[in-house]
Design goal:
This protein is mainly α. It contains 20 helices and two strands. It has helices spanning 2-7, 9-44, 47-59, 61-78, 81-88, 97-116, 119-140, 159-169, 174-177, 194-225, 230-263, 270-280, 282-304, 309-324, 326-343, 352-376, 384-391, 393-398, 409-421, 427-438, and strands spanning 154-157, 185-189. It is elongated and about 120 Å long.
């Protein structure tokens, strides 16, 4: 293998480039899958996120309208309102119980909607969702004896909200007292689905860590194998994160249309289904945007280490500070990191492990940039920018015929040569300045 590499370096380099490209594509695909696994894990298996999402759903007007209709339907399906009114009315008014029940049936959704706006209803809604999700996790984790895959079902118990609506509507709360225990039971997971759900849950719990570590490993391997083209490989990694994030957002939109059309039985409920999908996948969008932001930061880092005139000038100006004031340099980096933590443009900033990983990457990137600048401009001094500005003054003075005194062209070129030898001017800048001195037109 070594002999072949030495005898055909061009072929070896070409082979390496193909391997690096394949690794980058594979890692980007895995990053795309990791984004979705992180979303599913954090949304479906985290009780706080589940409850937070449910609270946002209740605040949405379309969802609240559909929920109030459901509560009203449950109330009238569970309680014989006409019979209850007949018991309440005096015998002379008993014939009016039927029309009154019909009127209450029409009024019930609006009453339920107003009831849902109260703090008590919001607390009941949050408690119902928290209880349902905790039960779900117990079943998925196969914990406790109260629930099992053989006979358990996960339900969202909205009886308290049905009773609350009945209390708002009924006479002296009698309707609320008649609501049966099984009213307002929404089945989330049926017993014949629990075994499969447990298997999926075990897989989803491990996938985010496995896929994330695998993507990082493949990206790192690609950068390592890139050899002298590691900066370009780092830039490609940044683009890979951006592509994975953008594809996730595109798939969210495409899948949303499919899911909404499948679940919306008619146009009247479509806005509510759209709201549920939008709110339920908001965390997916956060993770995808975080991947895009992280990719952009990597691209910027690769650009700062690149050969462009602006990047080279920035490294030249920063070289003396990076070389002689390391404490100040890392203090600035720490300040920038603190700002990023408070801003949290990447979701990883909200997790302890993510914080440690990003902090390590910032320190590593700073050290690599510091060593690069020190190697490129070992003699760069503080105030070098001012020297270069002053070095350009003779060129401006030469263009003014009224100037009282001017340096000779030889002296100007000698001074430019000195600046070039000290690393204050690049070869391109030196040649351009020399041409301007020789031909000041």
């Amino acid at each position: 293998m070594i002999i072949e590499a030495e005898s055909s370096p061009k072929g070896s380099a070409s082979g390496h480039r193909r391997i690096v490209a394949a690794l980058l594509v594979l890692a980007t695909l895995i990053t795309f899958l990791a984004i979705f696994s992180i979303w599913v894990n954090r949304q479906a298996l985290n009780t706080d996120n589940w409850v937070n999402t449910s609270e946002k759903l209740l605040q949405n007007e379309e969802v609240k309208s559909q929920l109030s209709n459901y509560l009203a339907d449950q109330l009238f399906a569970s309680v014989d309102v006409q019979a209850e009114l007949e018991k309440t009315f005096p015998p002379r008014l008993a014939p009016l119980a039927g029309p009154a029940a019909g009127a209450l049936n029409q009024l019930a959704p609006r009453v339920a909607e107003r009831a849902l706006e109260t703090s008590q209803a919001e607390s009941l809604w949050s408690a119902a969702n928290r209880g349902a999700h905790e039960t779900l996790l117990k079943i998925l984790n196969d914990e406790g004896s109260a629930v099992s895959t053989s006979g358990g079902e996960v339900t969202l118990d909205l009886k308290a909200l049905v009773s609350e609506s009945g209390g708002q509507l009924g006479v002296a709360g009698k309707l609320a007292s008649k609501v049966p225990p099984d009213a307002g039971q929404l089945t989330i997971l049926k017993s014949d689905q629990l075994s499969a759900a447990q298997d999926i849950s075990k897989l989803v719990r491990r996938l985010p860590i496995v896929l994330t570590l695998l993507a990082v490993f493949l990206y790192g391997l690609a950068i390592y194998l890139a050899g002298p083209r590691r900066r370009e490989a780092l830039r490609s990694v940044g683009f890979g994160f951006v592509v994975a994030g953008v594809l996730s957002l595109l798939l969210r939109g495409i899948a949303g249309n499919t899911v909404i059309n499948a679940l919306a039985g008619n146009e009247s409920v479509k806005p509510a289904v759209e709201a549920v999908w939008s709110i339920g996948t908001a965390l997916l969008m956060t993770v995808a945007v975080s991947a895009i932001t992280f990719g952009i930061l990597l691209v910027i880092a690769a650009w700062l280490a690149g050969p462009t005139r602006i990047a080279t000038a920035l490294r030249r100006e920063a070289a003396p500070y990076l070389r002689e004031r390391r404490g100040t340099t890392y203090a600035v980096v720490a300040f920038v990191f603190l700002v990023l933590v408070l801003w949290a443009p990447v979701a990883a900033f909200e997790k302890p492990l993510g914080l440690l990983l990003l902090a390590a990457l910032m320190v590593l990137g700073t050290e690599v940039l510091r060593r690069q600048a020190e190697a490129e401009f070992p003699e760069a001094t503080f105030g070098g920018f001012g020297d270069r500005v002053r070095a350009s003054a003779p060129r401006r003075a030469a263009a003014e015929p009224s100037a009282p005194s001017q340096e000779s062209k030889v002296e100007q070129i000698e001074r430019l040569s000195t600046l070039k030898e000290k690393g204050m001017l690049s070869e391109e800048e030196f040649e351009k300045a020399k041409a301007e001195v020789l031909d000041p037109r």
